[in-house]
Amino acid sequence: MTLEGKPTANRAASTTHAAPSEVTEQELQSKLFRLAILLATALSTIDEATPPAALPSGSKLPSSESFVRLSEQLHNDLVQLFNLAQKTATNLTLALKPSRNALAAAPASSGASISPIGGLDAASLTAASAQLDTFSSEVLPKLAFLARKAAGEAHIFVRAAPRELSQGEKDERTRLEKEVTAMGGRIVDPFEATPPAKVPGLGLGLNLTKAIRHHVRDVMESVAGLCTSLMDANTLKVVHQAAAARARADGVRNGPNATQSPPLSAMEGRKKALEATAKVWAACDQATKELPTSNREVVLKKWKEREEVMEDGWNELREGAGVDDAQAERDRESAAMRQPGRDHTTSSSRTNAVDLPLDESDPFAALQNLKLDDDEAAKAARFVPLIKLGRFLHGTLGRLLKSALSRQQDQSVLDYDELHLLGERMLEAQDDLVAALLYGEQELGNGLDLEEGDEQEAEEEAIEDGGASGTEGENSDEEQATTLSGAVNIYVKIALQLVHESGVDALLEHAESAALAPKASSASHQTAVKNVRICVEEMSKLGKSLAEQSEADG
After folding, report:
1. Measured between alpha carbons, how far is 320 from 441 in angstroms, rounded to an integer?
2. Which of 260, 290, 320 is the C-terminal boundary of a domain?
3. Considering all CA atoms of the chain, what is the largest pairwise distance in Å, rounded to the nearest integer?
4. Which of 56, 92, 255, 341 is deepest in the core (most CB within 10 A)?
């Protein structure tokens, strides 16, 4: 039996136990419209910020192992749904496949659009309707539910415990409550206004939930593309009007543009449907292959990517300073002999260097040709060892995290989301320092403002993070440096915070006490921790020296 015409439709329809009533073309267009609305709602839902779980004070906390099991279960369920989405998309496209005779008999394009599903028999339309039902009842709601479930379990917070009041305080509170209630108000206890505290090591992790949301969104958007490829002109028009109304309700000034148009021929319609099906398969394949199983996996992958970016910045500084690796070590040894107060050329003397004829096709061409003079190169060379130490420190910590014995054992010790945040801030601090050395200190404090999408994402992260700060005092380090010495201090301070948050000593102690810890693993941990300690000492001393020299140079 071939996969042409009615036999295909009958076979696809036979997957249901009871023979469904026949569906007309107009009814199928209505189902496509309802599915488009469901997709738009689901996409909007998974993009909304999800408040984290906040437990009352004194509650019994779930174990870290329970979240390991939850992440594995989410991974398995999502992969099954991605596979089901692929299968359903294929069955839908096959059910709506016109016969060879129908394609051959179709009239040539006359400039007017046609319905992509026009001319199909009732059995084919009925089989396609069953696949749309699978999307609307099995695939999409479950994908949205799992994405929201993951977001709600990203972190675990505990509310502050109320302070025990003395009898006199209770009497005074009762009196105040009566007065305030009589005026229509309400007394708020201090502990109620205190943000809940995040429990380190508990929850699925913010980076994992972001990865889940990213892949779920990609699959949903590809399914939406498949649905619109099957719509006629009237359905597309109504869908666009509904999207514009939703945009206005959400306060979006410029709503979505109508980019999808109905085909002009049966052959073009079939081509669009096949292309849309291929996109569903590609999105599901990518999601299945790249979907992580743990927050640790996501953070370590980003850690490796960040190492490469940090290496690029270090190489850029070395090349700009005109030194190789061995020369950088010699410059580090002679840096202490350099006498402050010498008439050095500062960054301000190079402000006219960027005032070169600009190539409108490449606005950064002038910066690419910018060269340091001898004094500036010598000054930049003094900082190369500091950046090298920072790179080595970051890389060693990454290897320590990667060699942790198991997720269950290190999950209760490490906060991978906080480690990722500090790692990103260390990269930003390195970029600021390198830019100041190569292009002048005027580059400091010129950070770009967040775009509208970035602001929304930052607000959502704040909600998902419970409105509580992570590391104590971290907000004070996010100020932008305005001097070279300030940039050095921030870079070193963030590096030390990263070491502290990584808990290398606690992780080493945990590994040595574990029953399954091999001696080789314990020895490698000891060596890595020793290297980290050396980096910390050297960065602290060198950073202090460079900051003092920068202040003396003016």
Report:
1. 15
2. 290
3. 93
4. 92
CA dihedral 423, 440, 334, 322 (to 10 degrees): 90
Write the secondary structure of 2-14 as one string of H (helix), E (strand) and C (coil): CCCHHHHHHHHHC
User: Considering only CA atoms, which of 464, 374, 387 is closest in space to residue 432?
Assistant: 387
Tell me the C-alpha distance between 495 and 490, whole Å.
9
In whole angstroms, give the CA distance from residue 145 to residue 138.
Answer: 11
Q: What is the pLDDT of residues 120-151, one digit of tens each?
A: 888 999 999 999 999 999 999 999 999 999 99
Number of Cβ within 10 Å of residue 497's Cβ equals 18
Query: Alpha-carbon distance 92 to 96, whole Å?
Result: 6
Vertex 97 angle, CA 93 and 99, to 5°: 170
Residue 402 burial (10 A CB sphere; 0-12, 13-18, 19+): exposed
Both tokens of 303, joined, read 């850690």
What is residue 231's DSSP assignment? -
Q: Is 247 exposed, middle or buried (0-12, 13-18, 19+ CB in 10 A)?
A: middle
486 in the same domain as 337 = yes
- Burial grade of 280 (CB within 10 A; 0-12, 13-18, 19 or more): buried
Q: Which residue has the tokens 């009237």?
A: 234
Q: What are phi and psi of 197, to 5 degrees?
A: -95, 135
- For 55, the enclosing helix (H) or strand (E) is strand 53-55
Which amino acid type is present at position 535? C
User: Are 506 and 431 within one domain?
Assistant: yes
| Domain housing 374 | 307-347+364-445+478-553
Share of the chain above pLDDT 90, in %: 36
pLDDT tens-digit profile of 143-169? 999 999 999 999 888 887 766 777 887
pTM above 0.90, yes or no: no
